[in-house]
Write a structure and sequence with these properties.
single chain, mainly alpha
């Protein structure tokens, strides 16, 4: 067995690679997928944002779907990467890539310190899951919630491919 094949199929390197793809890779791919149509629409429409062209592009609805709090395009990218992950790794570690990001998110939520005048769960919701995260510039959603979402989608995509599509191909 070649050194490259052993490295690719080894559990720890495969897990770390899949962890990176399921979080950072999915976020980058999701934003790029949303950016291309946003640029096209921004070029074809009149700038009513009152700002420069970049502001006009950022106001496009399709680009907003890649942002907080839902991260639609990064989640879809992670799902597709999960389905395709069998092509570059034979490791079964893809089923566990959600553990680290979800643990970090849960730890952060459970240790959250709220301001004096705000209720705890309302503040947690606003900073991690809702649209009203302006005071923190939505950093908690971007660095903690989004990786949890994308890693779960990656694992779900991997499971769909592994369990359902393989069984379907056996039936056909």
């Amino acid at each position: 067995m070649s050194t490259a094949k052993r490295w690719r199929d080894a559990t720890l390197p495969a897990f770390l690679t899949q962890q990176l793809v399921s979080t950072v890779g999915a976020m980058v791919a999701g934003f790029l997928v949303a950016l291309i149509p946003a640029v096209v629409v921004a070029m074809a429409t009149k700038n009513t944002s009152g700002g420069n062209w970049a502001d006009h592009m950022a106001e496009q609805h399709i680009f907003r779907a890649a942002e907080e709090p839902y991260f639609v395009f990064p989640i879809l990218a992670a799902f597709v990467f999960g389905v395709l992950s069998h092509r570059y790794s034979r490791s079964l570690s893809a089923r566990w890539v959600w553990v680290i990001p979800l643990t970090i998110l849960l730890w952060s939520v459970l240790t959250w310190r709220t301001g004096e005048s705000r209720p705890y769960w309302t503040d947690v919701w606003n900073n991690y899951f809702g649209r009203d995260c302006g005071s923190s510039e939505c950093a908690y959603e971007f660095f903690m919630t989004a990786p949890a979402y994308t890693s779960l989608a990656y694992t779900f995509g991997w499971l769909i491919k592994r369990v359902f599509l393989n069984k379907l191909s056996l039936l056909l």
